[in-house]
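Example (one chain per record):
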Amino acid sequence: MRSEVGAANKLLKAGGALGGAVVGAVTAVGIVTVLEGFWARERLHPAAPITTKAPSGTFGDDLPGDPVKLAMFGDSLAVGVGADGPDGSVAVMLARGLSKESGRPVHLYNQAVIGCESRGLPAQVSALGALGVKPDVAVIVVGGNDLMHLQRTGPAVQFLSEAVRTLRMLGCEVVVATCPDMGTIRPFIQPLRIFAHWLSRLLAAAQTIVVLRAGGRTVSLADTLGPIFRRDPSAMFSADGLHPSSQGYARAAEVILPSLCAASGVWTHKRAFVPHRVYNEERGQFLAWLAFRASRHAGTEVSAEEHKHGVRIVSMGRRTLGRLRHRPSHGRRAR
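Predicted structure:
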């Protein structure tokens, strides 16, 4: 009997020691991650104010027809910080690409603001409305600053949902480029890089859910561009190590343009079936569950049949997201 009690005590002591070691390791990793975060923010903070202006204007003005009104909303990525000039920004590349595909002029209204978080989107939409402009199609690029400033996912996606719904009520088609993979940022080191990568996936998944519910389309920058930026950072990032270079913006424009053309009605039939990439790995089930929890107050459920409306979802865990469908778009398309 005494031997059994002694063995049990030894087992409890070993378990306690192991538990203490695990807690200590987790605490240490957490402290290191926080310290790395502060260090990275200091390193990435610009030494001088960024003066890049959001490019706007008409592209393809020698083409026939009324201009397609394209609105751009979001943060410094939508402005084009890091590009060699306006021509190297994603907004200008998208405007020119849409003009070429549609055979019509495109007037770009860029309301993006450097440093914008998701909570700033409704104000950008209102600012364009105050100018009396009703865009035909809009592109939103947002999410990076929400992570950099450690904003909660739930409120962030609620602001995004509000902006998308407001635009849809105006008859505007909406394409949202979800949060890029912040784990690819060069100054980030482990374990901060893994933490940033995971949070980027979570926010992007929650953004996808609320945007589809609100009647918009999504493009996953993390899923499509993350591996490219991770493989060739010297070419994809600008000198600041945070924003894309002109080459990086060109790759982003290549990814966003198909969804923009499909949303605006330029691409029809089979070409209009552009997938909403989320995170196509079954191991993403837990991430999907967290994303649904974060987005549960940001919109209502939708159930329209996906293939009738030009939408195909590549899910992160098919059982979790496989039944999420896209609401039919009743807004005015650019024709």
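Caption: Residues 78 and 91 are 6 Å apart (CA to CA).
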